[in-house]
Amino acid sequence: MPKESLTPEEEQQIVAAIQEAELNTSGEIRVHIESNCKGNVLDRATEVFADLHMHLTKLRNGVLFYIALDDHQFAVLGDAGINAIVPDHFWEDITHEAINDFKQKRYADGLAKGIKMAGEQLKKHFPYEAHSDTNELSDDISFGK
Q1: How far apart are CA 139 and CA 137, in angstroms?
Q2: Range of the domain at 11
Q3: ∠ at Cα 9 (55, 96), nearest 5°?
Q4: Phi and psi dihedrals of 121, rounded to 5?
Q5: Which residues fall within 8 angstroms of residue 98, CB to CB, at 6 or more apart?
Q6: If you average pLDDT over every residue of the chain, what do you get?
Q7: Cβ atoms < 10 Å from Cβ of 9
Q8: What span, in angstroms and rounded, lies between the C-alpha atoms of 103 and 123?
Q9: What residues does the TPM domain cover (predicted)?
Q10: Where are the beta strands (DSSP E) in the chain?
């Protein structure tokens, strides 16, 4: 079961990284963990992105970190507003950094590093707006089967 793959402390580490990253940006970050990924990992991440209503943010600036633990699949998916402005290698850099920790089964560490990297880019392009910014999406980790 994906939920049992993290200790409560690791789960809190990931949520804290999301909250820290979102302090400086109007961007929204979600994490989804499940056991298996049937088919292409980017196709599945796109399905989860839609299921979590991440495409409904005002500035189209949501980022999904998707992991299928048993199948060793990982993807980082950004919405249209982000993909239009981040550097070409941006998602690959985050993926590479996170996978280094995943190989050691340090999922929370890898996710936290990747989330902080995403937060830095989001801060540059989608700065926090003190008077109008709201947390549009939950910071909690979502779990599949």
Answers
A1: 6
A2: 3-129
A3: 55
A4: -65, -45
A5: 65, 74, 76, 110, 111, 113, 114
A6: 88
A7: 8
A8: 29
A9: 5-120
A10: 28-34, 62-68, 73-78, 142-143
Report pTM. 0.90
Determine phi and psi for 142, rounding to 5 degrees.
-100, 145
Count of structural domains, the chain: 1
Calculate Rg over the CA atoms of the chain.
Answer: 14
**What pLDDT was estimated at residue 123?**
87
Distance CA 40, CA 119 (A): 26
CATH number at residue 22: 3.10.310.50
In a domain? residue 145: no
Q: What is the pLDDT of residue 142?
A: 84
End-to-end CA distance of the chain: 7
pLDDT of residue 24: 83
- Give yes or no for a contact between 116 and 19, defined as CB atoms under 8 angstroms apart: no
Mean pLDDT, residues 124-129: 78
Crossing angle for the helix pair 8-22 and 107-125, nearest 10 degrees? 10
Structural domain includes residue 47:
yes
